[in-house]
């Protein structure tokens, strides 16, 4: 079950990295190339949404004690998706501004703006990657701690069951002893 989820996670990470790269390229392209890139990014965003839905379905099927960890991962993925969509929207606005500037003949500092935008996107991608890696490490550690706790609880349960069984045997032996002593007293 969790292997399917992890497979979806990997696909989502690869897809979001591609989307981020393409969003950064949109302002640099011209004409039909830009239109094609915008269409490709829209298609990939839809694929990412579908992956998120698949991941949510997988989380619903996971055992309740493990579900919390996966739910927190899902929240971070949804936030990342929201940021990607916002970045794409800004890129499209920049794209429409550039089209307007091309039509009006206003060139300005577009290459400097593009460079700053690309550097900003790259920095954002690196921060997101670091946060994702840190979150993944925390999730792995949490899973290990949870597994150790479950093992300890299992051992404790076995000890309690053995002690309960010994108590029943002792109670039965005390009952027999009491009957024997009562019989002896009557004789």
UniProtKB/TrEMBL annotation:
Per the UniProt record, one Pfam family is: V-SNARE_C
Name the encoding gene, please.
Vti1a
Cellular component (GO) terms are: cytosol; endoplasmic reticulum membrane; ER to Golgi transport vesicle membrane; Golgi membrane; late endosome membrane; SNARE complex
Family under the similarity heading? Belongs to the VTI1 family.
Q: What is this protein called?
A: Vesicle transport through interaction with t-SNAREs homolog 1A
The domain of life is Eukaryota
What the entry lists under PANTHER family is as follows: VESICLE TRANSPORT THROUGH INTERACTION WITH T-SNARES HOMOLOG 1A, VESICLE TRANSPORT V-SNARE PROTEIN VTI1-RELATED
Subcellular location per UniProt equals: Endomembrane system; Golgi apparatus membrane
Quote one Gene Ontology molecular function term.
Answer: SNAP receptor activity
Subunit structure, as described in the record: Interacts with distinct SNARE complexes that contain either STX5 or STX6. Interacts with NAPA and, to a lesser extent, with NAPG. Identified in a complex containing STX6, STX12, VAMP4 and VTI1A.
Q: Which organism is it from?
A: Illadopsis cleaveri (blackcap illadopsis)
| Annotated membrane topology | Single-pass type IV membrane protein; Single-pass membrane protein
Q: Which CDD domains match?
A: SNARE_Vti1a
Q: Which residues form a coiled coil?
A: 31-61
The principal localisation class reads membrane
Q: Which GO terms describe its biological process?
A: Golgi to vacuole transport; intra-Golgi vesicle-mediated transport; intracellular protein transport; macroautophagy; retrograde transport, endosome to Golgi; vesicle fusion with Golgi apparatus
User: Which terms are listed as keywords in the entry?
Assistant: Coiled coil, Golgi apparatus, Membrane, Protein transport, Transmembrane, Transmembrane helix, Transport
The UniProt record lists the T-SNARE coiled-coil homology domain at 117-184
């Amino acid at each position: 079950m969790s292997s399917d989820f992890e497979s979806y996670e990997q696909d989502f990470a690869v897809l979001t990295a591609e989307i981020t790269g393409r969003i950064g390229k949109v302002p640099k392209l011209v004409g039909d190339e830009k239109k094609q890139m915008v269409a490709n990014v829209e298609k990939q965003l839809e694929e990412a949404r579908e992956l998120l839905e698949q991941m949510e379905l997988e989380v619903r099927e996971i055992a309740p004690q493990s579900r919390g960890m996966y739910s927190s991962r899902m929240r971070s993925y949804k936030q990342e998706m929201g940021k990607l969509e916002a970045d794409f929207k800004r890129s499209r606005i920049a794209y429409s501004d550039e089209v307007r500037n091309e039509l009006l003949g206003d060139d300005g500092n577009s290459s400097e703006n593009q460079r700053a935008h690309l550097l900003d996107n790259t920095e954002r991608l690196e921060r997101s990657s670091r946060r994702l890696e840190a979150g993944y490490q925390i999730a792995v550690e949490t899973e290990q701690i949870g597994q150790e706790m479950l093992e300890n609880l299992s051992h404790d349960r076995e000890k309690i069951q053995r002690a309960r069984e010994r108590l029943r045997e002792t109670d039965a032996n005390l009952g027999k002893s009491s009957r024997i002593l009562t019989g002896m007293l009557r004789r």
